[in-house]
Predict the structure.
Amino acid sequence: MKILHTADWHLGKIVNSVHMTEDQDYILTQLLEIIRTEKPDVLVIAGDLYDRAIPPKEAVDLLNRILTTLVNDIKIPILAISGNHDSPERLEFGTELFKSQQLYIETKLNRSLKPVVLEDKHGPVYFHLVPYIEPAEAREFFNDNSINSHQTAMAAVTNYIKENNNMSERHIFVGHAFVAGGMESESEERLSMIGGTPYVDANLFEEFVYVALGHLHQAQRIKRDVVRYSGSILKYSFSEANHKKSVTIIDLDGEGNCKLDYIPLVPKRDMRVVEGYFQEIIEQPLDGKEDYLHIRLLDKGQIMDPMYKLRKIYPNILRLERVGFTTTKSLLDLQQIRQKQTQSHTELFASFYKEITEEEIDDKRMEYIEKTITSVITKERGE
């Protein structure tokens, strides 16, 4: 059986005030072409179809269009679960009707304990679709007061599956969780930590032939190649600038062995961090002018309205940083504050200049500052 594993679409995502719907439309259209080319037997979406519980209309329309194309035109079975960003109640609408079209969207723990069974030439493959759940939900469902963390909740779920199924057959786990050892990025919403850590142990999944995970946005394996995050379909923060986005193709044989392949997703606009001097970036334009950029300027001197000038060439700058103007020194140290209270205006500015530039202010600049401060004080006094 050939399986395509994807996750973390986050439809409706806004990054630095920019709506990502156009970029998501582009990448999902690319995903449709990958499916048409690769012809997988089933598509797995491991949670976070939407970015928030109440998604915008454009995101709903996009998901509807993509799923309709998959079901009606490509005719591929779809196995999806809700993630921590999704509203289970909203995703649940129509799920019983959709099953007749081989669209399975699992949002509730009670239903997820019964696997979806698909057949290939070697026999049945059991897909266990386990949506994101809070420990309290598992505690209530299993009537077990010892469940007080994501680890104990997931242990209860996997133990139930193992106790009620013949695990010598081919069983695939689809989940949305933070498996210990995974690498985070800034765009993931932290899972609740009430009563314990948000992590679950990869050893819980030892008896599954493949574990299709969602939540972490970097494509990665956890302990074994077959315990895998496919990663998000797009970069959703600059902490992901070096990520290689892809979908995972799993070729599952009759013995439960998996051969994995990774097909890259190429965005309409990349998300990059660029470092350099202002004049060089202006005079020697970078490739990918339409990309989403975080520009880190190395200049120490004054630059008049750099964002306005840069955006004439790079319209999608999302963040501009003056590297030379950052400091890791604390301004809240009580001794420093008391010392500054005794300094004159010019001494304060000289101290600030040294803290920012790590250099002493020169006499010419100090003379200019003294004149400026004198002028401002005179105006403030109405003289």
User: Anything to note?
Assistant: Residues 327-334 have pLDDT under 50 and may be disordered.
